[in-house]
Design goal:
4-stranded antiparallel beta sheet, 12% strand, 13 strands, globular, alpha/beta, Aspartate Aminotransferase, domain 2, 7-stranded mixed beta sheet, 16 helices
Length: 473
């Protein structure tokens, strides 16, 4: 089968599905719970029903509400049902379904920028955020010509509120808080940020994309969760992904606003276009009807009781892993995570080497930098034995390292020599090694990147990672 041209004659579906199945052999085995992040799966029963809703509306376009009022109705219900989790019942919030957290974040920056210009006359807008905030904010500000003011976290990785407050000036338009942040799973002090926003007449966006839905249900089952939503008067917008812990298909997030006048600032309207009057409420034009329908189905088919059960399963699995890490003499939990995102490192062993060995055993895990660490996003799929399997493999890896400390030191020394040689050779050699097709220095390419990146200047780092993306796609 030709891979670079559309076939002249259509290929039989059996052959195509066989080809697809074969191409998946190198994919991660997420159904066995070996993926921490990237995939959020509610289970086979729920998934079948949700996918039916997607297929039923896969050809409908949610862009024009006059054509498909059913999709408009479902989107409005998704927004209202989501809003009910983050506000008092009497509150009326405004929002839209977006394609994901990045679009929600982009629109939150766009609306803040436009509102500040139209209402305060600010032409050189600045947004204050913590270094632990998601890079989607930096991406949005780059496109929108908004200056990011990044406040480093403290030595214990907690939020630096004092420095945050000192950074406020006449050009500040928006404060950003994470609930929780992605790297360590720690909550930003949203209540304090709310007071800052009110006292300084600023907007405050809460990024609850990854954890907001789960936090809402943790609160419902009696967990002590600090306020982070519209129950705080200073919160003016909030984003929450439904394709994470609401288990909707990929491409589903909700952006909520306290006031309609702020939401209107994200709209695009071109009444004089030759093709007719054009307007869109979000960044996208065409919006897949299947996403809206399947998101609506996820919320209404799983229901309150279902989400409570999934929340318990998620936190049970998280406890298994967290308890082991905290009892281990080899590992240290990073920060003070509030839910199912956690990170750990090791003072005794090379944490990236541990990550490499776990990857060899088939686990997909995140790697942190500043500090180096392993990052896990736990969900309900890890509750049926996967958490215990992970601990068993982690124990095996640690045992293999601890039983041969001398060998481990030799490994580190050899690697250090190889890495230092590359550093001395210069950026072009580093780039050639990382982008090359052959393995080098008995280390994974990912490991090499982490070892060498700190020695590159900003221009070199930018070029290297653009080249990596170009090679991948």
């Amino acid at each position: 089968m030709s891979k670079d041209k559309i076939p002249k004659t259509g290929i039989d579906e059996k052959d195509l599905f066989e080809y697809m199945e074969n191409s998946m052999h190198s994919d991660i085995d997420w159904r066995s719970g070996k993926t921490f992040g990237a995939v959020y799966y509610p289970g086979e029963e729920y998934s079948k029903v949700i996918s039916k809703a997607y297929v039923r509306f896969m050809h409908e376009n949610a862009f024009d509400p006059q054509l498909f009022s059913s999709i408009l109705s479902m989107e409005n219900e998704v927004v209202e049902q989501t809003a009910s989790l983050f506000s008092h019942e009497k509150d009326s919030l405004f929002g839209n379904v977006t394609s994901g957290g990045t679009e929600s974040i982009f629109l939150s920056i766009l609306s803040a920028r436009n509102w500040a210009k139209n209402n305060k006359g600010i032409d050189k807008p600045e947004v204050i955020l913590s270094s632990s905030a998601h890079p989607a904010f930096l991406k949005a500000m780059h496109f929108l010509n908004v200056k990011p003011v990044v406040i480093p976290t403290k030595k214990d990785f907690s939020f630096d509120l004092e420095s945050f407050e000192k950074a406020i000036n006449a050009n500040t338009i928006l404060l950003i808080g994470s609930a929780p942040n992605y790297p360590t799973g720690m909550m930003d002090p949203i209540e304090s940020l709310s007071k800052l926003a009110v006292d300084n007449e600023l907007l405050l966006h809460v990024d609850a994309c990854i954890g907001g839905f789960l936090l809402a249900y943790l609160k419902k089952i009696g967990k002590d969760i600090p306020l982070f939503d519209f129950k705080l008067s200073g919160v003016t917008s909030l984003s929450v992904d439904l394709h994470k812990y609401a288990y909707a298909p990929k491409g589903s997030s909700v952006l909520l606003y306290r006031k309609e006048e702020l939401r209107k600032e994200q709209f695009s309207v071109y009444p004089n276009w030759e093709g007719g009057i054009y307007g869109s409420t979000t960044f996208l034009g065409t919006k897949p009807g299947g996403i809206v329908a399947s998101t609506w189905m996820a919320l209404n088919h799983i229901g309150e009781d279902g989400f409570v059960k999934l929340t318990h399963k998620t936190m049970d699995a998280t406890k298994v892993i967290s308890d082991y890490i905290q009892k281990s003499k080899d590992l240290n939990l990073i920060g003070n995570p509030i839910m199912s995102l956690l990170a750990f490192n090791s003072e005794k062993h090379d944490i990236y080497h541990i990550a490499d060995l776990l990857s060899e055993k088939g686990w997909y895990i995140g790697r942190l930098q500043n500090p180096p660490g392993i990052h896990l996003v736990v969900s309900q799929i890890h509750a049926d034995g996967a958490a215990e399997n992970f601990i068993a493999d982690l124990q095996s890896v640690l045992k293999s390292l601890s039983s041969s400390e001398i060998k481990n030191k030799i490994f580190k020394t050899t690697d250090a020599l190889a890495v230092n040689a590359l550093k001395k050779a210069g950026y072009n050699s580093i780039k050639k090694t990382i982008l090359g097709k052959t393995k080098s220095n008995k280390k994974s390419k990912k490991r090499l990147i982490y070892d060498l990146k700190s020695d590159l200047n900003l221009e070199e780092s930018d070029d290297l990672f653009r080249s990596i993306l170009s090679n991948l796609y």
